[in-house]
Design a protein that fits this description.
- The chain starts with a strand and ends with a helix.
- The model has no long low-confidence stretch (mean pLDDT 89).
- The chain is built from 7 helices and 8 strands; from the N terminus they run E-E-E-E-H-E-H-E-H-H-E-H-H-E-H.
- With 246 residues, it is α/β, with parallel strands linked by helices.
- Helix 4 packs across helix 5 and helix 5 packs parallel to helix 7.
- It has one domain: Rossmann fold.
- It has an 8-stranded mixed sheet with strand order 1-8-7-5-6-2-3-4.
- Strand 5, helix 2 and strand 6 form a beta-alpha-beta unit.
Length: 246
């Protein structure tokens, strides 16, 4: 196996609170920490909830979000805003920049000085808005200083919707494989890949897909793959991992 796989068996993740399906914009706040996150998604985070979360589309969007984290932030928490955000006490979005295409994302990443990207694939029952704030929280709390890339897929955003979410992850295999390929080949960056719960199994399948499609070189740029609370059978994991070997 050309890449190292790390297993994180437990991750504290927000409890049973069902967050609102929206982000809120606010002006920059003195003393707040700002995380720049590059997002690849079929559903851009927005200020209004998504009416039909199970509706899937093959269109992929690329954007940068600047997420502000308040100085009063508590580790492991997202300080959710109401309809309007107070950046002194809430997570907020200071800015959004449309990157246009996969090529636009690759060019932007290539021009940035860091040689490493940390890419995050979120868990099930997570909307794109929650995933954006959650990745900002993780990056802040763990002091991740690499470039942050978030891959979101069309989750229904409900705990009882495991089966629709499972199918949505399958639907998103190719965009994730293409994203990793472009970060490696076109942006010329090493990749730390984080995948959580349901997406750990699907991520291993994507890595297998890269291997069989002539893109083994991408696997060499994974340093490492981190599976957070993996939702994958051990035998299946071993089979997927061994397939990626040299």
């Amino acid at each position: 196996m050309p890449f190292q796989v790390l297993i994180a068996p437990l991750l504290i993740w927000g409890g049973l609170f069902q967050p609102p399906d929206r982000i809120a914009f606010a002006d920059p706040q003195l003393g707040a920490s700002v995380r720049q996150i590059y997002v690849t998604t079929s559903r851009l985070p927005g200020t209004e909830p998504i009416a039909n979360r199970v509706d899937r589309t093959a269109q992929v969007n690329f954007a940068r979000f600047d997420v502000s984290i308040p100085s009063t932030h508590r580790l492991g928490q997202i300080e959710w805003p109401d309809e309007t955000a107070d950046p002194a006490t809430d997570f907020a979005v200071e800015g959004q920049n449309d990157l246009g295409s996969q090529d636009g994302l690759s060019r932007t990443l290539r021009q940035l000085p860091s040689n490493e990207v940390t890419a995050f694939v979120h868990k099930y029952s997570t909307t794109s808005s929650e995933a954006l704030y959650r990745y900002a929280q993780i990056g802040h709390d763990f002091e991740i200083d690499t470039l942050g890339v978030l891959f979101t897929w069309p989750s229904a955003g409900r705990p009882e919707a495991y089966v629709p979410d499972r199918d949505s992850v399958l639907f998103s295999h190719d965009p994730l494989a293409d994203l990793l390929t472009d970060i490696s080949r076109r942006a010329n960056k090493d990749i730390v890949l984080l995948a959580h719960l349901l997406c750990t199994h699907r991520t291993m399948q994507v890595l297998r897909q890269l291997a069989v499609s002539g893109r083994r070189g991408v696997l060499n740029d994974l340093i490492p793959v981190v599976l957070l609370a993996p939702d994958i059978d051990p035998d299946i994991f071993r089979a997927e991992a061994e397939f990626g070997g040299d």
